């Protein structure tokens, strides 16, 4: 019944009144404390178990391991498991191994999880469907779909039957790569094994087809699931709406929400509205998006931070910066239940800088720091780019120079933005020096960085230096982009007799 607090109270009463308890009672209480996120109390009970002369068994320790993992302490769970084996306190069973493997997978430690998987087999503990499904799901999420398919083949070869959860993980992984032929093969295999697709299976397919713009296929899947006796839910229709919005057919998505879902008695959730609001904002129909935003409370729904961010971005996209600023101040800043994130700040900073409100952007940035929000490198990139493009190079340079003090490392975008700013202001030596420094600092330039500096050399008539850098760029597998090629052609038209330019033409335009 999941009444864990009540169970703990009963356990305490038993202990106080001297009612006999056994290991099963202790294990139940330990499990309750783990579910209540009080693993510390669970370990206290472990000590009590031993004091009463009971010997904790595999269930006791597996429960504790699961509790540690649920509290995001996989390292402690792993250490406990290792010590249990080292001191031969228990003989781990398939549940114990699978619990640890699941914890490792949730942390993305797939190599260690596979090693433990092979170790359990070596020790004679046979993995079950849940063990294989856990590994397969993790591999698919890490986009290692072929390895996951290999495990499916292995488990069936060993006589371990996959279930619908196993197939759902694989279908999702294959859909992420648009491997439709493999998806169809798995669906046929499910039919052969008499494993019925569930709502989750169909939702994966509707979502995948929608994302690829294959809206007719998505609708066919919904029709098929209804024929099979499966009931589409809010997730199904939200995925269909998302597919319509991605095709720019937002009004058709609205029909799904207002007509189809209502007809089937399905109540839209906030995500359904967020999809529509985002669709209308991308179509630059912000007023329609705001109408939907205002409709949310009337439907008993609360907007999320994503809802607010989408409206804010929509205002800026349509150049309505005054309304954007008003929306932020009145709807977001005064909403105590709303936690502003880095993405919100990035939208606002980018919008203000794009509309040349740089001073206001800096003021907001200071407010954000005072409020305790810790900006990431994306926030700094937005501000550095906005400052440098609006004639505030020194302020941009100051932010850039102070990044290490903030515990942040500039990425390739940060360096490229600064190089572009230096080139624009004719500070070519500073740009070149920063270019050399970025690689020394462990950040490799990309094609955008090279092309940016090459155009800077062109602009400042440093044609030999541009040629050397172009050779280096090509040696690294990059090539001149359209802007660089266009700039070179323009120079050749006006300065055809320059030997350095003619050499460049011979190398790159013939």
UniProtKB/TrEMBL annotation:
Coiled coil: none annotated. SUPFAM superfamilies: HCP-like (SSF81901). Gene3D superfamilies: Tetratricopeptide repeat domain (1.25.40.10). It holds the Pfam family PPR_2. PPR repeats lie at residues 22-56, 93-127, 128-162, 163-197, 198-232, 233-268, 269-303, 304-340, 341-375, 376-410, 411-445, 446-480. Keywords: Repeat. PANTHER family: MEMBRANE-ASSOCIATED SALT-INDUCIBLE PROTEIN-LIKE, OS03G0201400 PROTEIN. Belongs to the PPR family. P subfamily. This is Mitochondrial PPR protein. The lineage of its organism: Eukaryota, Viridiplantae, Streptophyta, Embryophyta, Tracheophyta.
């Amino acid at each position: 019944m999941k009444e864990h607090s009540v169970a703990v109270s009963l356990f305490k009463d038993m202990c106080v009144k001297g009612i006999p308890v056994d290991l099963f009672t202790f294990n139940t209480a330990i499990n309750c404390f783990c579910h209540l996120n009080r693993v510390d109390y669970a370990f206290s009970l472990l000590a009590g178990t031993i004091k009463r002369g009971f010997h904790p068994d595999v269930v006791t320790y597996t429960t504790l391991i699961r509790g540690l993992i649920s509290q995001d302490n996989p390292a402690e769970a792993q250490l406990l498991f290792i010590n249990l084996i080292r001191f031969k306190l228990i003989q781990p069973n398939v549940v114990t191994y699978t619990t640890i493997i699941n914890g490792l997978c949730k942390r993305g430690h797939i190599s260690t999880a596979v090693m433990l998987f092979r170790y359990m087999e070596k020790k004679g503990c046979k993995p079950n469907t849940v063990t294989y499904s856990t590994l397969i799901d993790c591999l698919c999420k890490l986009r290692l779909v072929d390895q996951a398919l290999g495990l499916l083949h292995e488990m069936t070869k060993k006589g371990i039957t996959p279930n619908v959860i196993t197939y759902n993980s694989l279908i999702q992984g294959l859909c992420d790569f648009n491997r439709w032929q493999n998806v169809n093969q798995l669906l046929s295999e499910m039919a052969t094994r008499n494993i019925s697709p569930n709502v989750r299976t169909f939702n994966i397919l509707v979502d995948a087809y929608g994302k690829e713009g294959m809206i007719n296929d998505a609708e066919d899947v919904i029709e098929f699931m209804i024929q099979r006796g499966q009931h589409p839910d809010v997730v199904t229709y939200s995925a269909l709406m998302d597919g319509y919005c991605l095709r720019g057919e937002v009004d058709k998505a609205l029909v799904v929400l207002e007509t189809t879902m209502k007809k089937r008695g399905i109540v839209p959730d906030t995500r359904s509205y967020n999809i529509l609001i985002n669709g209308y904002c991308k179509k630059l129909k912000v007023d329609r998006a705001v109408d939907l935003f205002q409709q949310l409370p009337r439907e008993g729904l609360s907007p999320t931070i994503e809802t607010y961010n989408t409206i804010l971005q929509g205002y800026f996209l349509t150049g309505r910066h005054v309304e954007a600023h008003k929306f932020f101040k009145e709807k977001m800043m005064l909403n105590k239940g709303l936690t502003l994130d880095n993405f919100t700040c990035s939208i606002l900073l980018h919008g203000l800088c794009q509309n040349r409100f740089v001073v206001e952007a800096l003021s907001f940035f200071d407010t954000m720091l005072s409020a305790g929000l810790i900006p990431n490198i994306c926030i700094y990139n937005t501000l550095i780019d906005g400052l440098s493009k609006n004639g505030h190079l020194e302020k941009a340079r100051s932010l850039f120079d102070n990044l290490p003090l903030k515990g942040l490392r500039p990425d390739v975008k940060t360096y490229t933005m600064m190089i572009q700013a230096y080139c624009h202001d004719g500070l070519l030596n500073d740009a070149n020096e920063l270019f050399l420094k970025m690689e020394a600092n462990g950040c490799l330039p990309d094609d955008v960085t090279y092309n940016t500096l090459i155009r800077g050399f062109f602009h400042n008539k440093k044609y030999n230096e541009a040629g050397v850098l172009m050779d280096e760029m090509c040696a690294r597998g990059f090539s001149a982009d359209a802007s660089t090629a266009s700039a070179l052609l323009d120079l050749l038209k006006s300065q055809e007799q320059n030997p350095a330019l003619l050499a460049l033409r011979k190398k790159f335009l013939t």
